[in-house]
Amino acid sequence: MYHKVAPRPAGSLVPHHYVSPKRFQAHVRALTRARFRAIRLEELDAEYENTDRVVNFSFDDGYENFATNALPVLRAAGMTATVFAVAELLGASNEWDTELGDVPERLMSSDGLRAATTMGIEIGSHSCTHKRLPTCDDDSMLHEVAQSKRILSAILGRDVPIFCYPYGAHDARVREAVRAAGYRAACGVGKGWNDKTTDQFQLKRVNVRSDTSGPLLFWKLLRQSRLR
Questions:
Q1: pLDDT at position 210, please?
Q2: Alpha-carbon dihedral angle through residues 53, 211, 190, 107, given to the nearest 10 degrees
Q3: CB count, 10 Å around CB of 90?
Q4: Residue 78 buriedness (CB in 10 A; 0-12 / 13-18 / 19+)
Q5: Which of 26-35, 161-170, 218-227 is the least confident region?
Q6: What is the average per-residue pLDDT within 8-14?
Q7: CATH of 4-226, one of 2.120.10.30, 3.90.550.10, 3.20.20.370, 3.40.50.300
Q8: Domain boundaries, the chain
Q9: Of 191, 187, 225, 217, which is closest to residue 24 (Cα–Cα)?
Q10: CA atoms within a 13 Å half-sphere pointing along the CA-CB vector of 96
Q11: Per-residue pLDDT for 228 more than 50?
């Protein structure tokens, strides 16, 4: 699970969210050498018999720096990824952070998302405005979940089957709303690998931080696979 692939700017409130382009390239190189294969999350059901060498690169929030700094590296390695976009803020910035005083970062536009899909990238929903869903009333929460799916599906001309909970925050009410909206699966921030026993609306991930080296990423994946 990544957020930003870019140099860390001064004044960021979440400096660990920034993975340098050089470090990201090292991650991809390490996984390629270890013969890992990257898939889209919509392919996960078909891969449960072969999960030891299968990974998903997921990028929360849909920052423009994914397109400029991460996508070329992935394409060069023949790998894919999943980008979770904030549907009502496309082409804008991370308002949920800047209202707290954080550094603004541009989000991918509608055209950027469409271009990424032509290169094999999967687009998922990260809600409409990045609200913490368990704290929303029913109407607001349902809007964030269902309307984001409608917006992104219309932009891409295809269904958007995967959801990602903003801040990783969810409860039974939120998960049921995601299921009812027609998503097939959803990600939180629980650590670990996924298999046939995993709740498809609580998919686990491995967090990648600014200080995660290539060898450390490989160790994290190995450690989580042993904890399954």
A1: 94
A2: -100
A3: 18
A4: exposed
A5: 218-227
A6: 94
A7: 3.20.20.370
A8: 4-226
A9: 217
A10: 15
A11: no
- Mean pLDDT, the chain, as a whole number? 93
Give the separation between CA 68 and CA 140, rounded to whole angstroms.
33
- Tokens representing 72 are 């070329």
What is the pLDDT, as a whole number, of residue 48? 61
Tell me whether residue 150 is exposed, middle or buried, using C-beta atoms within 10 angstroms of its C-beta: 0 to 12, 13 to 18, 19 or more.
middle
Give which of 227, 224, 214 is closest to 31, Cα–Cα.
214
Q: Which two tokens stand for residue 19?
A: 């993975």
Q: Give CA torsion, residues 89, 158, 124, 187, to 10 deg.
A: 140
Write down the pTM of the prediction: 0.94
Amino acid residing at 57:
F
- Name 53's Cβ contacts closer than 8 Å, sequence gap at least 6: 34, 35, 36, 37
Q: What is the mean pLDDT of residues 127-135?
A: 98
Q: How far is CA 211 from CA 5, 17, 73, in A?
A: 12, 10, 19
